[in-house]
Design goal:
Structural class: mainly alpha
CATH class: Mainly Alpha
Shape: globular
Number of helices: 7
Distance between the termini: 23 Å
Number of domains: 1
Largest sheet: none
Radius of gyration: 17 Å
């Protein structure tokens, strides 16, 4: 008897709205984690000196958005947390961890809430996530320097976050519209 392919199982689970279980779930989460870490490390090589120190495009969030739409919320959150912790160990340290957690958790919470409402497209959800990520990181910066003046960066960083969020959302929508995800 021929076993169905991993791709076929993924498509069937996603189409029927079933939770993935066991080895298949672990393999799918591992692939998404590997993709998100690769994007995280790749975008670290792209200099963006004109926006703000340490600014990134947020390419790894593409995988977070896809996970939010293809996995149970707890698994998507686990994926995000693993990417932040491992990414911080590979290319950052405690400061990067703090900023990434603040931005990532605020962004994830907002995107999850907007997705549940069913009033927003993938692009709209991701756009809000880009803005909220920057808001979370500015909040940590304001707390760290004990000065709310850092929020003066919010108009510029907020617009950049919404722009990259829309781009990430467009790519995620394209991925999610495909028959095969793996």
């Amino acid at each position: 008897m021929i076993k169905p392919s991993l791709e076929g199982k993924a498509r069937k689970c996603l189409r029927e709205g079933k939770d993935m279980q066991g080895t298949f779930r672990l393999a799918y989460l591992s692939l998404l984690l590997a993709f998100s870490l690769a994007l995280f490390l790749f975008e670290g090589l792209i200099p963006l000196p004109f926006i703000a120190p340490g600014a990134k495009l947020g390419l790894a969030n593409l995988i977070t958005v896809v996970a939010l739409y293809t996995l149970p919320r707890r698994d998507a959150l686990l994926l995000l947390l693993l990417r932040i912790v491992i990414g911080s160990l590979l290319g950052g340290g405690p400061t990067v961890l703090a900023y990434s957690l603040a931005g990532g958790l605020l962004s994830f919470g907002g995107m999850a809430a907007l997705k549940v409402s069913s009033r927003f497209s993938v692009i709209g959800v991701s756009l809000a996530g880009g803005f909220l990520h920057n808001l979370g990181q500015l909040s940590i910066a304001a707390w760290a320097v004990e000065n709310w003046g850092v929020f003066a960066y919010l108009p510029v960083l907020g617009l950049c976050g919404m722009g990259t969020g829309a781009l990430i959302g467009s790519m995620a929508a394209g991925i999610l519209s495909k028959e095969t995800l793996i």
